[in-house]
From TrEMBL:
All copies of domain HTH merR-type, residue ranges: 8-65
Coiled-coil zones: none
Protein's name according to its UniProt entry: HTH merR-type domain-containing protein
A GO molecular-function descriptor: DNA-binding transcription factor activity
PROSITE patterns linked: HTH_MERR_2
Classification via InterPro entries: DNA-bd_dom_put_sf (IPR009061), MerR-type_HTH_dom (IPR000551), MerR_fam (IPR047057)
KW DNA-binding (keyword) present: yes
Species this chain originates from: Kutzneria albida DSM 43870
Residue intervals passing through the bilayer: none
Keywords per UniProt: DNA-binding
Pfam families (UniProt xref): MerR_1
SUPFAM superfamilies for the chain: Putative DNA-binding domain (SSF46955)
Length: 141
């Protein structure tokens, strides 16, 4: 949607300012993620709405929240309709993040223990670590 007197920015400028390659913006256009406001010849131009959408795509995808495919599900225009697929993507993403956070908290606890373990070589000599590793081996085997 182009607003009268809204400044339009050429694809090269947008790519540079958003830290992207022009090819990435073209790919986003092909996927329907960030279509340009207009084209003049072979040059794509972006207005404020498209730049806002690009910022959303970057926030969702580049910051590692969701995959590019899930970003497409979340940003597909449905003209005000409920988006159950989008809500499911959000719920699944939150569940995955929660699992990853739990894994990182557990990993941090192991590293903090090793850092304070009184043995000379905690990675090889720590009895707590050895017991944890034996538990893993027993579970796997």
């Amino acid at each position: 949607m182009v607003v009268v007197n809204e400044p339009l920015h050429p694809i090269g400028e947008v790519a540079r300012r958003f830290g992207l390659r022009v090819s990435a913006l073209r790919y986003y256009d092909e996927l329907g993620l960030v279509p340009p406001a207009e084209r003049r010849g072979t040059v794509r131009y972006y207005g404020r709405e498209e730049l806002r959408r690009l910022a959303l795509v970057q926030r969702l995808h580049r910051e590692g929240m969701v995959t590019l495919a899930d970003t497409a599900v979340l940003t597909t225009d449905r003209h005000g309709e409920e988006q159950p697929a989008g809500r499911q993507v959000l719920a699944d993403t939150i569940a995955g993040m929660t699992r990853r956070i739990d894994e990182l908290v557990a990993a941090r606890a192991v590293l903090e223990h090793l850092l304070t373990c009184p043995t000379a070589d905690p990675v090889r000599q720590c009895s707590k670590l050895r017991a944890d590793l034996d538990e893993i081996v027993d579970r796997v085997m």
